[in-house]
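Contributing new records

If you add data, match the layout below exactly. Sequence lines come first and carry their own label; structure lines follow with theirs. Keep one chain per record. Anything else will be rejected by the validation script.
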Amino acid sequence: SAYRLCTMRKLPSVLARTLTSGTSGSSVLPDMSEVRSRLRDIVGASTNWRDHVQAMQERKALHTLLAKRQEDLPPRRMKDSYLEVTLPLGSQPEIREKYLNVHNSVRFGRILEDLDSLGVLICYTHTKQEMQPRSPLSIVTALVDKINLCKKIIYPDCDIKFTGNVSWVGRTSMEVKMHMLQLHDGDYSPVLDATFVMVARDPENKRPAFVNPVVPETPEEEEIFKQGELNKLKRVDFSTASLLKMAPTAEERNIVHDIFLNTLDTRQEGEGTVSFRSRKLPPNSVWMEDAKLKGLQICHPQERNIFNRIFGGFLMRKAFELGWATACSYGGSRPFIVSVDDIMFQRPVEVGSLLLLSGQVCYTEKNYIQVRVHSEVYDADTREHQTTNIFHFTFTSENEVPRVVPKTYGESMLYLDGKRHFAAVMREI
């Protein structure tokens, strides 16, 4: 099963530092609401939509605090950014309702929101300037590299603990590794591992800004840092080989041609009369064009982040829920999330936008369903559509699912792209 492994490494106990105090142990761990109020304090964000312009104007003055070069910033250790945060679903039942789904387990979309907020706070902790309560940096999520789950069910009545720290730093970007554990019989056991990439920008979120370098201290940290370098190179390779830039490989071309031959309608008289246009669906298959769902969101001020754009976690939750519904209607039974990977945040979503989401089953294998969710904003004034995100989700269904079959060249490229993402996930788990 895909759930047999979780690459949870026990972090050294010296890292056990909480948000509220510099020591581990005695102090109560902060919860997710504290994470969000702490973020508002760091940025100086308004809690009233009418005041947000004023709050953003005040941030302009922080420009003078930006470093001119990365070398001017003090290096930090990995443990300097380490945070532990609790989600007390067991000990505080009143917050449970928000996290509950109809199957009496935890809504994964809510977990995505929490990971997004925590990732940003970890980066602010890494870049914190002493004596400076407000940060001049605007730190935003650039990419969800991967989230791999090793538990099928997240229980709604047991406490959850998130841990994480900065694992790699470029000049203006930071990789954050986070882990989620859940309390069972007095012990915290691993649920998922997540790797996010955050970028730092100036106070007005217009240009890149330098961040503190990170210095690994132990062989284990050296290994984690090296993995961050490799992740970056892997992303570059994956993007370079994108089917939007390069033709499929010879093997992939054969796959597409085989699918094409398998869908030709040969029932007509004589071999010479087979038409390229006449297609039939093979048994136990579904045309790709019949395996999609669409959704629309109006982006209200309630969903804004500390920079008054739509919160990345909200976009992830909405995309996940549409992806789940797409997999559910396709497989005919409850799907379980196995992995989330390669979510690119291509452009911010403004408050007031119309957000159009489109979920597509693009690859299937046995009981696995690979779903791609495309999100775009529609500007009613200019009548233009612009892509904001592409999401990739791997689900497993309780039963074997029908094969999804592309009909056009464009669909065949989506199919191959889905196959590539699925293969990458399978290698990980």
